[in-house]
Design a protein that fits this description.
Blueprint: E1 4-7, E2 11-16, E3 29-35, H1 37-47, E4 52-59, H2 62-73, E5 81-84, E6 90-96, E7 102-107, H3 120-128, E8 131-135, H4 142-157, E9 161-165, H5 178-188, E10 191-192, H6 208-217, E11 222-226, E12 232-236, E13 239-243, H7 256-269, H8 274-288, H9 301-311
Parallel strand pairs: 1-4, 1-8, 2-6, 4-5, 8-9, 9-10, 10-11
Antiparallel strand pairs: 2-3, 6-7, 11-12, 12-13
Bound molecules: adenosine-5'-triphosphate (ATP) and magnesium ion.
The site of magnesium ion has 4 residues, from loops.
């Protein structure tokens, strides 16, 4: 079976149980929850029993251990999560506003994962993995950008494949080096998994109808478009498939895209037909929003089958 590698932030998320604007007044909180977009993505792959690993860095503290314990329990190879003595694991405080937008206070760049180094464990994984998943949010530091680009080049050179979820906050685009790194990643991408607004970050065209063929012509074999509560679509040079949204009550939308991506890739790597991979990914994303906590909504195969049965999806 093919083994998947991802690189990037591992953090805890602490969530306000009230809705409103930010953290200027005292708020009741729940958490810490294991989190970080690359971590949620790889956890979803682990739960579907696809061999997988993450390169990251945490502090020698409970927040780091909580994440490592969860990833191990769900089947992820954590050999390349370095434990940095005297540093802190990344964290995010989150509060939802009434309109569903989120206010975050992040401690990521200044935390242990802000200075990911090249290690012997990283090298060993780049040598043995068959696929790299690039999470745009992980390109926040020059260190991770260098590690991601090296891994992508080495894995592609050996005949492996690359998937890419832009998953990037607007403000990150202004940082020097990010734009070029994103363009480099796109040129190596086999499976592209944007949200609708992210589809146009790499195209001349500003409408879906033109942007999709433009990207397919550039050499991306598979495009999976995430439409939030409107479901998802998959495009290849052979055709187009759509997944209608499954009707769920949204409790916490964080992590839906990462769970969706992990599920799609698990089926794609196993050689499933696009409509099958899309159906399971759509279910993984919908099921994820029904659970509080970013990584709490990842699913194993039995849970996805039961959920699809219940939803008649
Ligand atoms: P994030 O980066 O915040 O995790 P995203 O934009 O990458 O989000 P979404 O489009 O929000 O990803 O969600 C991914 C997929 O999960 C959707 O394409 C859809 O299949 C499913 N999904 C998400 N939200 C819902 C919902 N409210 N109801 C049903 N399905 C949903
Ligand atoms: Mg996303």
């Amino acid at each position: 079976m093919k083994k998947v590698l991802t690189i990037g932030e591992v953090l805890v998320e602490i969530v306000a149980t009230t809705k409103g604007n930010g953290f200027l007044t005292e708020q009741p909180l729940v958490g810490p929850f294991p989190s970080g977009a690359p971590a949620i993505f790889i956890d979803q792959l682990g739960k579907l029993e696809t061999p997988c690993a993450i390169v990251s860095r945490v502090g020698n503290d409970d927040f780091g251990q909580l994440n490592i314990n969860r990833l191990i329990a769900d089947g992820v190879d954590v050999s390349a999560i370095a434990i940095a003595e005297g540093e802190c694991t990344a964290s995010a405080f989150v509060r939802y506003q009434e309109d569903g937008n989120r206010a975050f206070i992040f401690n990521i760049k200044e935390s242990a994962c802000g200075t990911l180094d090249k290690t012997a464990e990283y090298d060993a994984l780049v040598e043995c993995c068959d696929h790299l998943h690039v999470m745009g949010s992980a390109l926040f530091s020059p260190n991770t950008r260098a590690l991601v680009m090296e891994a992508a080049a080495r894995i592609k050179q050996r005949g492996g494949s690359v998937s890419f979820d832009p998953n990037i906050r607007e403000e990150m685009l202004n940082e020097p080096g990010i734009r070029a790194a994103l363009d480099d990643v796109v040129s190596l991408t086999d499976v592209f998994m944007p949200s609708v607004n992210e589809l146009f970050m790499f195209t001349q065209s500003a409408c879906e109808q033109d942007a999709v063929p433009e990207l397919l012509q550039r050499g991306i074999g598979t495009i999976v478009l995430k439409r939030g509560a409107d479901g998802a679509s998959c495009f290849t040079r052979q055709g187009r498939w759509d997944a209608a949204p499954l009707a769920v009550t949204e409790i916490d939308p964080t992590g839906a895209g990462d769970s969706f991506g992990g599920a799609f890739l698990s089926f794609w790597l196993a050689g499933a037909a696009p409509e099958v991979a899309l159906r399971y990914a759509n279910a993984a994303g919908a099921r994820a929003v029904t659970r509080l906590g970013p990584m709490e909504g990842t699913s194993n195969r039995q849970e996805l089958d039961a959920f699809l049965h219940e939803m008649k999806g």
